[in-house]
Amino acid sequence: FFFSSRRRHTRFLPVSWARRCVQETGQYYNQIMPGLKQLLFNLPSETSQQQTIRVLTIECIGFLVSAIKHDTQIFIEDINSIMSVLIQLQNSGLQRDDPQITAILSVYANFAQALGQDFARFLPQIFDRVIDSAELEVDFILQDELDTRDDRLDNENMAKASVNLKILGGKKTLAVNTSLLEQKITASSTLFAIIDSLEKDFYQYVPRSC
Fold this sequence. Notes:
Blueprint: H1 5-24, H2 29-42, H3 48-67, H4 72-90, H5 99-115, H6 123-134, E1 140-144, E2 158-164, E3 171-177, H7 178-198, H8 206-209
Antiparallel strand pairs: 1-3, 2-3
């Protein structure tokens, strides 16, 4: 119940369509990727609608590369320019619960699985960000239902539900920052994907990831 059904539906349709379409018609990569890159490189992030489009674009790029990951020559040049933009974006001072961060992390995982050990060259620039996201403390609030004093409840990423704890305190408002929670989960999955892809090239990063 923590995830808005409308938000999930809006995000799910274009991304899942792209994943299914690309998996079946990978030969159209050169027709699809330029448009996605144009959106990523040029679309501002000034409104919630623009931010949503950027998130979907980033996710679609990851699925597109993942669908043809066995033919690296097709996408290798694109990966270099895309990674440059994603790294710059992640270091641009985004809010810690910006959904774009989760999308970026998922693309890191897609690219790591596609490039294998060649992904190691990007690790010095992204590793600390992945770890920071994996170590996030997720905002969690449990308070009396009529108590609205916590300013964190005004955050649009805070999903709220009313629960009745009965003898344990009666009706309470339970709220979780789902954007941070999703980011934390995605970062952990991305870390596993990087470790699996880099194998021995990851050894120098083991102390920082423990």
